[in-house]
Amino acid sequence: MTRKHTARDAAPHHLETFFLSPTRAAELVRRTGVVETMRGMAQALEEDFGRWQDFEKSARTANHSPHGVIELMPVSDDREFAFKYVNGHPINTRSGLPTVMAFGALASVDTGMPEFISELTLTTALRTAATSVMIARRLARPDSRTMALIGNGAQSEFQALAFHGLLGIRQLRLYDVDPAATRKLAANLAPHALEVVCCGSTDEALRGADIVTTVTADKAYATILGGHQVVPGMHVNAVGGDCPGKTELAAEVLRKGRVFVEYEPQTRIEGDLQQMPADFEVTEFWRVLRGEAPGRTSAAQITVFDSVGFALEDYSALRYMRALAGAAGVLERLELIPELADPKNLYALLQPPAAAESAVAARTAVAA
Amino acid sequence: MTRKHTARDAAPHHLETFFLSPTRAAELVRRTGVVETMRGMAQALEEDFGRWQDFEKSARTANHSPHGVIELMPVSDDREFAFKYVNGHPINTRSGLPTVMAFGALASVDTGMPEFISELTLTTALRTAATSVMIARRLARPDSRTMALIGNGAQSEFQALAFHGLLGIRQLRLYDVDPAATRKLAANLAPHALEVVCCGSTDEALRGADIVTTVTADKAYATILGGHQVVPGMHVNAVGGDCPGKTELAAEVLRKGRVFVEYEPQTRIEGDLQQMPADFEVTEFWRVLRGEAPGRTSAAQITVFDSVGFALEDYSALRYMRALAGAAGVLERLELIPELADPKNLYALLQPPAAAESAVAARTAVAA
C-alpha cells in the first residue's frame, strides 16, 4: 500500500508569517546606517519604478475624518502583493502621538499568504526621503549644494540626511513655524558634516537654495511657497501636500515649473495638483527614469516634484527591509494564519485537540 | 519650578496594539461555543447594519491574478476604522493551503492608531455564517426546517451550525463535487442534534429544502443552481459567488426571486448580480432591518441573498471578537507602532540609546 502524499505534509512550510517590529527595524537601520539604508532603498525604488508596467496600480483608499485620514495603499506585480495602512493626523502631536503611523504587508500573489508584516512608521520616513532623492537625482541641477527645508517635523531629518548623503547637499536652511521643531532638527543633524542654518522665515530659508523641500503637516489649503518665491533653476520637492484639502504650493509655483508626479490618477486627487485644471500637464516620473520623457532640460528650468506617496514605494521599501532583516537574522515569527491539517477543514480548529487528532486519523484512514 | 506635563508622559498610554492570534481565537470560540459566538456576532451585525448611515463605505479593492484575488476591505464610522486583508485562491487546497486567509485591524478614527490586529481566517467563517443567519431571519419562511448545503468546504460547518443553532434548521442535505469534503462535513456535524443527509447530486440535496445555501469555491462562471431548481417559498443563501468571473446562480434564479444584497455598488461588481443589467432591482438588506423596505411578503415568494461579504461585517466581527477576547483576558500585545518621547522626533529611534536619553534630557531642559 502506497501512502499518498497528503496536503498535510506540505502545509506547514507555507504558513510562516515573518514580522519586523519598530524596535528591530530601528536597530537594523542603526546598524546599517541611515544613509546606507536609504541608498539601498533608493536603488530598490529605481528597480521597481523602472518596471512600472509590471504593477497593478490604483489610487489609495482614504477614509477622512475632521482631524485626519486613514489610508490603505495596495499594489501588486505577478509575484507579490503589498499594502500599507497609514494615517495622517497632524493634531496628534499635541497629545504625544506621531502624525503618521503605519504598518503593512507583503503577500504571495500565487497563494494569497501574507508572508511578511512590518512596522512602516520608521520605514515610511526612510522611503519617502529615498523617493525624493531618486527623483531629485534626475530633476535637480547637478551642482545643487544648498537646500531649504520648510517644515522640521518627523520626516525632516530623513530628507536632510538623504539629500546630504546621496545628493551632495552641503548647506541646509531650516524653517518651521514651531521653533522647537527647528531646534530638534538642528540638534539631530549636529553630528553630521552639514552646514545647518536656522532661519526665522521661509524667505530667509530660501536664500540661495538650489532645492526647496516642503514637508509641513497641516491639513489645510496652505501656501508654504508662493509663486514669487521660486526662482529659475530651482527644484521644488513638495512632500507635505498629500491629501484632498491639504496643499503647500501656490498654483503659480506649479505653473512656473514642469511638474512631475508618482502616479497621476492619485496625485490629481491628493497632490498640490488638486488645485489645477484636469488637463494641467504633468509627467509621471517613471517615464523619465526609462528615458521616455525628459527630466530637467535646462539649468534655468524650475522643476517640481508633487510628492504624495504611492503604494509602489511601500512595495519597494517592504521588500528591501525584509531582505535586510532576513540577512541580519532579526525577523520574528507572527502567528497570523492558522495551520490546518486539511485546508477544507477549518472547523477542526474548534475541536478539542484530542478529537481533532482522531478526526485526522479517521480521514487518513479513509484516504488510504 | 513647575514641571510641565509633557507629551512624553501621555504617549505610552495610547500606543498599545492588541493582538488576537488564530490559536487564541480558536480557544476563545471553543470556550464560548461556536453557536454562541455566532449568536453574539449576529447581534453585533444587527446593531451595525441598523446604523448603516453612520458608516463611510466603499467597494473593496481587488487585485486579481490568474488563480485568485487579494482584497482590502475598509470601512469606518466616526469612532473606528476597520479593514480586512483577505485572499481567495480556490487552487490553494491542492497544495495544503486554505482557499481563504485573512487578517485585519481596528483603528481609532481620532488618532489613526491601530489598536487591534486580529486573525480573521476563522473569524471570517464565523461572520459570514452569522451574516447569512441575520439575513435569513428576515427572508426565509419562519417554518423553514430543511436546508440544502451545496459546497462542503471550509465555510460549510459554520453555515450548518449557524442555521441549526440560530434559525431552527433540523435537516441538512449535503452535496459537493468532492465526496471527501462531504464526508468531512458530515463527520464534523455528527456530534450535533442535526439530521444529516449526504446526497449524490444537487437535485437530491434540494429535495424538500426550504433554504438552499451555495458555498462553492471555483473562480468560474458556474451554475450551481439553475432556474428550474428553485421552487416557490425557497430562500437562496448564495455565498460563493463573490468576485468578478465567479458566480453560482443562473440569471433565471435572480429573475424568479426578490434579490437582497449587502452593499449594492460592490455586489453589482462581485455578486451573482454581475450577470444582470445595471437596472436590475435589488434591495440593500439594512433597509429591511430598519423597516424601510419589505423582506419576504408571502410564503410562496422566492428570496435570494446574493452574499459577497462586506467590510462592515468585518468591523462588527472585529469589535465583537475584541470584546470577547478582552473579557477573557486572552489579548496579547504586538509592538507595531514605535513609542516616541517627542512625536516630532521620529529620528530619535535611530540614535544610540544613551544619546537618545541625553537628547531627551536636553530637550526637557530647554522646555523647562
Summarize the structure.
2 copies of one chain form a homodimer. In chain A, 35% of the residues lie in helices and 23% in strands. Chain A has helices at 7-10, 22-32, 34-49, 121-139, 156-167, 179-189, 202-206, 251-256, 264-270, 285-289, 311-328, 353-367, and strands spanning 17-20, 61-65, 68-76, 80-88, 102-108, 114-119, 146-150, 171-175, 195-198, 211-214, 221-225, 235-238, 247-249, 258-261, 283-284, 303-306, 332-334.
CATH architecture tag of the largest domain in chain A: 3-Layer(aba) Sandwich
Chains forming the largest contact? A-B, 94 and 93 residues
Order of helices and strands of chain A: HEHHEEEEEHEHEHEHEEEEHEHEHEHEH
Task: Identify the CATH homologous superfamily of the largest domain in chain A.
Answer: NAD(P)-binding Rossmann-like Domain
Number of helices of chain A: 12
Q: Number of DSSP strands of chain A?
A: 17
Count of the domains of chain A: 2
Oligomer state of the chains in this structure: homodimer
* Fraction of helical residues of chain A: 25-40%
First-residue to last-residue Cα separation of chain A:
8 Å
Approximately how much beta-strand content do the residues of chain A carry?
A: 15-25%
Overall outline of chain A: globular
| Class from helix and strand fractions of chain A | alpha/beta
CATH class of the largest domain in chain A: Alpha Beta
**How is the CATH topology of the largest domain in chain A named?**
Rossmann fold
